[in-house]
């Protein structure tokens, strides 16, 4: 019996679909509504805010004295409780908000009970009534109201169904800290005190800069040493650049070291809050001399004493005239400089409605081996991050949460990612084997990017995006994400004006940073953001931030290399189409078309002023003809263009391998042999291009004297002919010769120019 065939991945539907949800503003797509909820379905909640309690002792003070107070809420089958205060008090204060969903009959019951309890004795109940229904002296400050998702309390409230994991399930709006470039321009040093181990030794001195967990080192300098003293003077003239985030938690530490003997000459500590800040594109003036000091560790008399070990001449300042990249430049969500004085004018607002997801795959197993997914979304645009609430134990979660951002440039991208929440503490998945001190990472379900310039203004897009994840075993569709997007434009004139402005702040062009500097600083910024957002409540884990920012290291990938090669070839495919069209015309396959082309050619030659108008009119007609075939939806991730569906196991295994590699033996050897084969073909292509260029250069170098003499004769004849004959006649002759009838051609014979160039020598003869 033949084995069953494995189902193909291309049976999955990876297309973008248009949906029709029942949301506000759908009936009038071009009208800007003042309602806060225009892109999602309204959900109603019963909000309860517990502020504080005031229990006044009357007869027995101990009666109203709570050792570990908390408040419990009961409505229908739902129960919720505030945090337990550990300090005994008569006036406990909580200031917590609870939200009970009223939709789909989830809120059963019409009586809300609020009980003030003491965690040390569950029988002791205080509040409006005690356990016997008797009044107790005291009062509870609380607020109860009906609201929806647009309520300010929605993002900070505990939601019914969250259980005890409210700290990791509620919605949250985050803001990235303001990022600066910290620039340290080393100018020189004087009077460095180096140990007198060997006066003939040349010291190897460098400056090490430390900011938090980041360390940068200057190049090694070996200055001449004065044998009569123990001091050294050097001029390093180098710049070190960090990324610093407000508020500045860590100082800048500059350490001068002698690497030859591993000796710490001294250090200096600088407070970032006291440094100069460049907020306009003018030269910085923060040049200064700072003392290099070292704490003695000698005998008891000198132990702990601070010794002056030299001076360091530098210019250090916080640079705010650049944009600090935390994302790849291909899909940045913000292009503004750090300094608000350099920000462009706001051009509009981006509204995003995160509606729901469907068909999510199981991401983990809970008690009893039951498959489950606890999904939430994270959206990032500019410095603003949003996190939806976590819908527990659902493969089709409904969020219906709406957020908005200010837009300063349409050529930006918003990123929406879906994750499975692994911070709930009640799962039985693979994370249980990890280190208990490390929080488990949230599993990736998929990601969507939307470029604002592909959206029509003031139009609501309701689309279902496929969630695609590339794994070592192949590409996988993990579900669909339903979104509603709207780009509101304040002024069309301002919007069109941005297309004539530089993409980045002007200092990126006046004094650009190198590619390697930009890449290193981007990873610094991503590290800082993951550290800061990881300390928020609820935290955004490092894996979540890195996945949204796409901060992975750019290593070799055969799949991406093949995809980029096909993209490159597709961009220049129009040249091959033009060549094939001209070849078809000169082949006289349709004599009427060839004659029409020849007549048009003669007209343009005799009236050259019509050439440029015809070129621009052709471009205009080409663009107009493509309007009926324009895309109706913004683009999404394409697995075919990415070559994800045809990537083999060994290719994906290499792409997901660590750096340095964790594979051994035969696997590494096969990869190496494959890279040698690819490199050999690239080497031949580069060599062929170099050979053709060297053949042209050989004409002027007299490598082949006979060929050079022929070239000289042809140049003299061409000079005389061009001088005597008008250029238009020469162009007519050349064009007529190119489209001559086939009977006047010699079949399958290269041209004279081709034959001449192929016979010229090149430096390939000198290669070993």
TrEMBL record:
InterPro entries: C2_dom, C2_domain_sf, C2D_MCTP_PRT_plant, MCTP_C, QUIRKY-like. Residues 26-159, 331-465 form the C2 domain. The chain crosses the membrane at residues 595-624, 709-731. Its main location: membrane. Residues 1-20 are annotated as: Disordered. One of its GO terms (cellular component) is membrane. It holds the Pfam family C2. Keywords: Calcium, Membrane, Repeat, Transmembrane, Transmembrane helix. It is a multi-pass membrane protein. SMART domains: C2 (SM00239). The keyword Nucleotide-binding does not apply. It is found in: Membrane. Belongs to the MCTP family. This is C2 domain-containing protein. It comes from Linum tenue.
């Amino acid at each position: 019996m033949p084995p069953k065939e494995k189902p193909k991945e291309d049976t999955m539907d990876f297309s973008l679909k248009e949906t029709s949800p029942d949301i506000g503003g759908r009936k009038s797509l071009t009208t800007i509504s003042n309602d806060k909820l225009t892109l999602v379905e309204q959900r109603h909640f019963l909000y309860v805010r517990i502020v504080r309690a005031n229990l006044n002792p009357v007869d027995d003070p101990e009666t109203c004295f709570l050792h570990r107070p908390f408040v419990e809420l009961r409505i229908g089958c739902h129960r919720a409780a505030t945090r337990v205060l550990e300090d005994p008090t008569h006036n406990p204060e909580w200031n917590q908000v609870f939200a009970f969903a009223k939709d789909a009959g989830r809120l059963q019951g019409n009586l809300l009970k609020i009980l003030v309890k003491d965690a040390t004795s569950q029988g002791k109940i205080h509040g409006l009534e005690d356990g016997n229904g008797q009044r107790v002296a005291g009062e509870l400050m609380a607020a109860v109201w009906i609201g929806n998702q647009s309520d300010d309390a929605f993002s900070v409230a505990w939601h019914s169904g969250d259980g005890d994991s409210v700290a990791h399930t509620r919605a949250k709006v985050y803001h990235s800290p303001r990022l600066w470039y910290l620039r340290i321009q080393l100018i020189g040093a004087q009077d460095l005190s180096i140990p007198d181990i060997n006066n003939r030794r040349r010291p190897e001195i460098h400056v090490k800069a430390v900011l938090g967990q980041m360390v940068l080192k200057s190049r090694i300098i070996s200055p001449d040493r004065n044998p009569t003293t123990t001091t050294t003077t050097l001029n390093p003239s180098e710049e070190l650049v960090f990324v610093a985030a407000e508020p500045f938690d860590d100082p800048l530490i500059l350490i001068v070291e002698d690497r030859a003997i591993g000796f710490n000459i001294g250090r200096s500590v600088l407070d970032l809050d006291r440094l100069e800040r460049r907020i306009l594109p003018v030269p910085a003036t923060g040049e200064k001399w700072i003392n290099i000091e070292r704490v003695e560790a000698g005998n008891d008399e000198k132990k702990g004493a601070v010794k002056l070990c030299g001076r360091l001449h530098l210019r250090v300042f916080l640079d705010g005239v650049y944009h600090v990249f935390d994302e790849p430049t291909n899909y940045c969500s913000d292009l503004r400089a750090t300094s608000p004085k350099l920000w462009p004018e706001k051009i509009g607002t981006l509204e995003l409605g995160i509606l729901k997801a469907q068909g999510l795959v199981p991401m983990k197993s809970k008690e009893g081996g039951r498959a489950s997914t606890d999904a939430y979304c994270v959206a990032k645009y500019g410095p603003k991050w949003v996190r939806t609430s976590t819908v527990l134990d659902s493969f089709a979660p409904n969020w219906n949460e709406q957020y908005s951002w200010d837009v300063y440039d349409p050529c930006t991208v918003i990123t929406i990612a879906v994750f499975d929440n692994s911070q709930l503490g009640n799962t039985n998945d693979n994370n249980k084997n990890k280190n208990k001190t490390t929080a488990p990472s949230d599993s990736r379900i998929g990601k969507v990017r939307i470029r604002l310039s592909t959206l029509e203004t003031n139009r609501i897009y309701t689309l279902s995006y496929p969630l695609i994840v590339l794994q070592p075993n192949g590409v996988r569709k993990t579900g669909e994400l339903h979104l509603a997007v709207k780009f509101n434009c304040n002024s069309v004139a301002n919007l069109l004006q941005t297309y004539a402005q530089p993409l980045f702040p002007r200092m990126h062009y006046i004094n650009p940073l190198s590619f390697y500097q930009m890449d290193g600083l981007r990873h610094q910024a991503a590290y800082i953001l993951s550290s800061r957002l990881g300390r928020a409540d609820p935290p955004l884990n490092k894996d979540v931030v890195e996945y949204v920012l796409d901060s992975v290291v750019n290593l070799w990938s055969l799949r991406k290399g093949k995809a980029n090669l096909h993209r490159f070839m597709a961009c220049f495919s129009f040249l091959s189409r033009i060549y094939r069209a001209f070849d078809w015309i000169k082949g006289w396959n349709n004599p009427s078309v060839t004659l029409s082309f020849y007549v048009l050619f003669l007209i343009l030659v005799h009236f050259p002023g019509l050439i440029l108008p015809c070129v621009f009119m052709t471009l205009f007609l080409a663009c107009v003809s493509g309007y009926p075939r324009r895309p109706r939806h913004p683009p999404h991730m394409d697995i075919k263009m990415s070559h994800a569906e045809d990537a083999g196991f060994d290719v994906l295994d290499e792409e997901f391998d660590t750096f340095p590699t964790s594979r051994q033996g035969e696997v590494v050897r096969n990869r190496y042999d494959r890279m040698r084969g690819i490199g050999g073909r690239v080497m031949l292509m580069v060599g062929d291009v170099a050979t053709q260029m060297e053949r042209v250069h050989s004409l002027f170098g007299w490598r082949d004297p006979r060929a050079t003499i022929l070239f000289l004769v042809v140049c003299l004849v061409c000079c005389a002919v061009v001088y005597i004959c008008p250029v238009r006649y020469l162009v007519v002759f050349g064009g007529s010769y190119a489209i001559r009838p086939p009977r006047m051609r010699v079949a399958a014979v290269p041209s004279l120019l081709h034959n001449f160039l192929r016979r010229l020598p090149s430096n390939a003869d000198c290669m070993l």
